[in-house]
Amino acid sequence: MATKMPAVTTETTPVAHRGAITATIICACVMQGLDTTIVNVCLPHIQGSMSAAQDQISWVLTSYIVASAIMMPLTGWLAGHFGVKYIFLGSVIGFTIASALCGAATSLTQLVLYRMLQGVCSAGLVPLGQATLFTIYPREKHGQAMAIFSTGAMMGPIVGPTLGGWLTENLDWRWCFYINLPVGALCALGVFVFIRQTRSMRRSEFDMFGFLMLSIAVGSLQLMLDRGQLKDWFHSTEIWIEATIAALCFYLLVVHTATADERSFLNRDLLKSPNFVAGSLLMFGVGMILSGTLALMPSMMQVLMNYPVFDAGWMMAPRGVGTMIAMFLVARLINRVDNRLFILIGFVLTAASLWQMTGYSLYMGSGPILFAGFAQGFGLGCTFVPLNLLALSGLPHHILTQGTAIRALVRMLGGSIGIAILETQLTQNTQIVHSRLIEQLRPDNPLTHALLSAPFSLTNPSGIAALNNEVTRQAAMISYIDDFMLMLIVVLASLPLLLLVRVPRRQPVAAAAGD
Question: What is each CA distance from 47 to 44, 176, 279, 352, in whole angstroms?
Fold first, then answer.
């Protein structure tokens, strides 16, 4: 029993600055989350400023996502080799410098390179922050810690569209990057002053083959998803090559991880945890719903319903309010209620909001959008904390950072794959529905003449153009509804995974030990 006492004192060493460390981590997560969504709003302005084509400007987003996805699994090894503090500090400083360079870029090539650097530095912010909170908070307070962390992580994506629209309209698109500078400086100061370097680091050898296979697989998959719609998917040789490379590298990574010694890049202990595997799969679905909705709703409101950029941004705010309220409620009840019940309630509420969204129309007011956004945000907010807690709380300390990095990667892939599928279905269904609606608009159809009125007509060019524009709008609205229905199916199909999740039985013991 006496041998355990030094471990307790070392665990409580950084707790003296727990509040400051938590605030620093939240600022870093807000900064990282903000940058993933704020650029989407100002992208058309960047395209005009750089005189770039549509396929060229997409690299501003792709370079960031690919670099971040490739570097994210490496975070665990770097933290174990050099320590969490130094990697976290380097990531914050590098992200801040890259943001300044992005704002000062004078060409598209420079902007893409600086965005790539920004993605490399952003990869470790969320995993390292999450792992640090698990370290400085006792097990019985992990739920509260994850609620605070998730609130900060969600603030960025929710505030991003509104802030990006305001900065772009009133200042310039470059301020979407400059906004990170004061936040990054405060975060760097907080990491340097309050986070202490850990001494118990495992300096395992670097598995270069595993890292290369995972990097090439993730990079090829992201390129395929980003360029698939532009290249007409598998009618293009480029897409076939990228898909083949991604599948082959994923296969080699699985074989290597299963047959290699203990130095494999992906720790096999992660795959031995049913909670981690099931929680990661559920987080994949959550990432698809969250990223898919954030990608679809602004374009639907601006293009189909003629909302201004700023209005479309602030109408996403109730989603964030619902998320924060849910996470604060969950934090107070997390130790009294079965965590799986929160996940079930969250997924049911999310499904109900998506069901309501399948009833959207072009002539509705803002009420259904605000209500569905709040309900969906509340439902997703009920899932974040329990999913993180069940999947990560029981992992050994030496693989905790890698576990958080892999889960962040899975959520990012869920968002990327979800957006690619939803955007493809949106484009294809719009064309299909448009052709079917046009088939009924014929001069020999008596219903056509009974329903058509000015400015629509089948005889003069201006009336035909107005009619075609309205048919396109209606077809697009139906396609958005089909996307919402697809996300509803994903949520319902994910529910059986809850049967694989088990509540750790060691929590009461840990709580008692902490007392």
Answer: 5, 14, 39, 38
